[in-house]
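Handout, page 2. Input:
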Amino acid sequence: MSLALPRSAPRVRSVPPVAAVAAVVALLAVPLGPGGGGGAHPADAVSGLAVLYCALRLVRDRRRPLTRTAAVLLGLPVAGAALAAVGAASPGPALTGFGRYLQIFVLVPAAVLLLVRERRDVRLLAWSTVGLALWQGTVGVHQYVTGTGASYQGERVRAVGTFGRRT
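Output:
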């Protein structure tokens, strides 16, 4: 008895590379745990994996990743954040902040720039962002209606979405 698929079986469409970035957007909807005001979020971990995935694709494909202009534009925030970190009073928080700024303003945008290749990729990323906005709006309306939003001047009325929301 053969377990091979018949030749007429439909092929599974491959997952586009930009799906890693869409996963980061989707994970932004995950609320923080109790007392999780500042620190790593699941979206941070997945954004790191997306950057690593992008780097591995660049090595595998052996292609020049960015134009000279793009490299300069992405290098400017690195220089500014490094200068600020060197001049900081305490080196520990300065290094942490440098890493965070590098992630937000350089690494993830470069990965997005390199992983978006077709209109289909742009569409997937745009719709994932629209989905996140709709989710955030729904959570915000619910918090406003139920009075469970963030405290503002002693009243718990302000809608904040899932960013900083306590579960």
